[in-house]
Amino acid sequence: MVKKQSFWYRLGSGFVIGLGLVIPGVSGGVLAMVVGLYESIIAAIAKPFVNWRDNIRLLLPLGIGAAICLLFLARILEYLFAQHTLPTLYFFFGLVIASLPSMVRLANRKGFRLSFLVSLCIGVVLLLLVTSLPRHAGGEATATFGLLRSAMQGATLGVGLVIPGLSASFLLIAFGFYEELLGAAVHLDLQILIPAALGFVPTIVLASRVMDWLFKWKHSHVSYAIIGLMLGSLWVAFPGWPRTSLELVLCAGLFALGIGIASLFLRERAV
Question: For position 245, what pLDDT does the model report?
């Protein structure tokens, strides 16, 4: 499959998939499906030493494209979150909410069972439990916790890129990690980026293997658990209500724009 696409196609696909790294509400896994490379990527990451030359030809341009995307958009998003936090978050909320109906339809493609709701609740509770963990530590534990925190950021990115429908960057917002990691990418802060990479690499390999097995075993239950994670993210990351009339109009407009863009994207994907 690798040989059917040119280097430039894979490079461009990497840029597209990289949107899932930086734009909350955008799933890297879904984008990989859109460009037709999801199964190839999962197989290459899950078993990197099988056909390793083809795997390198696939993953290297994808990685370069994703890095270009990150460097290109990181500064823009850092500015938006610093200067227009609430409207920016409402736009991303629109993106996430618009994707939920398609996730439900995909999960119910072989019918609906009440047991699916148990999986949904597990996803919500898991997200709430993780985000309830303390975000800061003091005293002698600060340095160690900082390394663990950065590794968790990388692990979250890895999970979000592998699981279709789950936005890694939106999860980072829910966990309180997003702006810190985004700033580290903009300013090339290696004290954060290196531990994040150490969390990212093993997580994406493990997640690829687990997702390949889970979707074959219990596709619908896993899909509902992902929906639960998304709902939990919306609850935790909710930024509050607009405070002025102008802010209300701006937030409502951007929320609607997010829904419109996501709906258009999903409609094109279904064609």
Answer: 92
Angle at 45 between CA 44 and CA 48, to 5 degrees: 65
Check the CA dihedral 53-153-72-184 and report its sign: negative
> Which residues in 223-250 are b (16+ Cβ under 10 Å) and which e?
bbbbbbbbbbbbebbeeeebeeeeeeeb
Q: How far apart are CA 248 and CA 242, in angstroms?
A: 5
Rounded CA gap, 266 and 30, in Å? 10
- Return the residue matching tokens 């596709």: 219
Q: CB neighbours (10 Å) of residue 264?
A: 11
105 exposure class (CB count in 10 Å sphere: 0-12, 13-18, 19+): exposed
Return contacts of 174-177, CB within 8 angstroms, 24+ apart. Answer: 174/127, 174/131, 174/232, 174/233, 174/236, 174/237, 175/130, 175/131, 175/135, 175/236, 176/131, 176/135, 177/149, 177/152, 177/153
For the chain, 271 residues long, the average pLDDT of each consecutive 10-residue run is: 68 81 70 72 83 88 88 79 84 81 82 90 82 49 60 82 73 78 83 88 87 80 84 79 92 91 63 46
Backbone angles phi, psi at 241, to 5 degrees: -90, 150
Helices 190-217, 219-237: inter-axial angle, 10-degree rounding: 140
3-state secondary structure of 106: helix
- Cα angle value 219/221/227 (rounded, 5°): 105
DSSP state of 17: H
Cβ(219)–Cβ(106) under 8 Å? no
Concatenate the DSSP letters of all residues of 207-267 into one string. Answer: HHHHHHHHHHH-HHHHHHHHHHHHHHHHHHH-----SSHHHHHHHHHHHHHHHHHHHHHHH
